Structure formats: structure tokens, C-alpha cells
Amino acid sequence: MKDNNLNKDYDIIILGCGPAGLQAAMHAARKKCTVLVLGRPERSSLYKAHIENYCCVSGKRSGKELLEIGMEQARGFGVDFLHEDAVKTESLENGGFGVETESRHLTCLSLIIATGVSRKGLGLKGEKDLVGKGISYCVDCDANFYRGATVAVFGNGSAAVHGALTLNDIASKVYLITTGLNISPELKNSLEKSSVEVFSGRKIKGLVSDKTLKAITLDDGTTLEVDGLFIELGAKGAMELAAFLGVELDPERFTHIMTDKNQATNIPGIFAAGDICGLPYQMAKAVGEGCIAGISAGSYCQKLKREAAKN
Ligand SMILES: Cc1cc2nc3c(=O)[nH]c(=O)nc-3n(C[C@H](O)[C@H](O)[C@H](O)COP(=O)(O)OP(=O)(O)OC[C@H]3O[C@@H](n4cnc5c(N)ncnc54)[C@H](O)[C@@H]3O)c2cc1C
Description:
By secondary structure, the protein is α/β, with parallel strands linked by helices.
């Protein structure tokens, strides 16, 4: 390379070791780019999930297993991994980007942000251990596992009410626990017409379990026997890194990154994919967007190199 500005540690650094990051890595590496994936597979939303709605993969597959296969595939295409978080990102004066991880400072020509979303929990005793065993943060993902079952939803906003109404068509009994609903009159009307039983002005105080969730207790002493509890408090993206780079976020809630159909953000050279780009939080979408982001970032790097070679 003639241009020193193109001499970086990697052509592409991908923030995120979930399905979006892994698929992006494979496509970028196949475009003859050097690629590093940062992040921890065990922090991917997929890690504790069981997937049965991903095209061409039949049965109920463990997310952990799928991630291991994905990493192995990516390694086969020459992708490097560093299981650390990015703690700081910056645009470099001579072009490209700097990424500070927990142990080192790295540079790249292009960045792909695929950090997923961190689902807010209630912080109840045993909550984390029961994820996938009765506790879920995603009605769209897990509702079908509760066909004919008794479930509760906790939340105050439209996500919780939509979730309860969706579950009402699938489960045999749905409770909605809320400290106070903040929803549109239309949604309130739909809720009132449904058979969802609402416990208003209540908090969940505890979880009763025996390997799987058996019941929840409320702050007024009520115990509700349930097979599932959906905590629908919305999702908070790891946006600080993106915001620091000047990446445009969704203007209403600042919880997702805005991209075009090439998964490009408003900052040249920065692409994004997966849950961090918005709903639906589904593996199929994450993989599809990862594919596009990987190809787009690969083309971006190739173009930079072609232009540098001409000068
Ligand atoms: C319980 C559960 C059940 C689900 N069931 C289904 C289902 O049945 N079907 C379906 O399609 N989807 C399901 N999903 C959703 C699916 O898992 C997600 O849509 C998918 O994992 C999103 O992929 P992603 O790559 O965007 O993000 P994630 O998989 O969440 O990966 C994010 C990655 O970013 C990394 N990261 C975060 N911050 C940083 C940082 N600062 N620096 C570097 N790396 C960082 C994390 O370590 C992680 O590796 C489920 C999710 C959950 C939680």
C-alpha cells in the first residue's frame, strides 16, 4: 500500500460477537479484508436462547452451539477474535478509526457496530439463572414456547401491553403486572376488551422456582402461579461508543442506530447490523444485516485501497 493512512492493524474491526457480527465477519473476510471481531459470545443474546425459527435449521437449537459453529466458520475464513469489549472509539485524524479494548489500542479502516441490545432486567434474586427457563425479555422470540400456559408480563409501556395481547392469543392465561400504564387510549381500549388480567400499581417482589419458574410474588403479598414471566421494559442499546463517533441514532428514543439499505451509518466507513439497528430482535434479521454490513464494509475498504493505488 502506498498510502500510510491505509496501514492499520485491521481493515475492519467488528464490535460484537453475536450472529450479526459473525455473519459480517465472514462476508468481509471473503472480500479479502483483514477482520477482527471484538466482544464475548457469552454476552450475545443468542447465547442462552433456543432457536427454532431460523430458516434451514430444523429442531430447537442451542444458541450457544450456533455461536460456536459461527465462530469456527469465521476462523476458517481467516477472521481474528479478541474476546474483549471496546471501551472507547475514535475517528482518526489521518482517516480510519481507533478502538481501545480492555487491553490494547487498535486501528482500522472501517468499523461495524453489532453490539446488540442489553435487555433491562428487574434485578430479582434468581432472575438471571431463569432466563430461558421461564424468564424472557422478548415476547416476539419466546411466545410460542408458552402455548396453553399461564404467563405474566411486567412493564408499563406499549411494549408490555402489546406483549400481553400477543400472548393472550397463545397462552391460556395472561397476567399484566404494572406499576402504572403509560399507553395510548387505543391500546388501553384493546387491553380492556381482552381477557388479560391486570394488576395495576404492583411490583414483582420475588420469583419462586424449582429449576424452572413456578410462581411470582407481588409486593401486596399476592402469589401468581406462572410458567413464564416476560419482562418487557424495552431495550437499551450500547450507544455510547456510537454516539461518541457521531453516528446518528433514532431521533425519538436514541436506542438504535440509523442505517441505510447498505447498513451504512451517516459516518463514512461505519456500518451497523443486528439488534442495535432496531426491531424485530431476531437472529434472521441480525444475520441478514450482518451479511450486508460485511459486504458493504469490504467494498468500502477495497475502494479506499484502489484509490490509494492510483495516486
Ligand atoms: C431469551 C432469548 C430468546 C431468543 N429467542 C430467539 C428466537 O427464538 N429466534 C430468534 O430469531 N431470535 C431470538 N432471540 C433474539 C436473538 O438472540 C437476537 O436477535 C440476536 O442474538 C441479535 O444478534 P446481534 O448480533 O445483533 O446481537 P447479540 O447476539 O446480542 O450480540 C451482541 C454482541 O456484542 C458484544 N458487545 C456488546 N458491547 C460491546 C462492546 N462495547 N465492545 C465489543 N463487543 C460488544 C457482546 O459481547 C455480544 O457478543 C432471543 C433472544 C433472547 C434473549
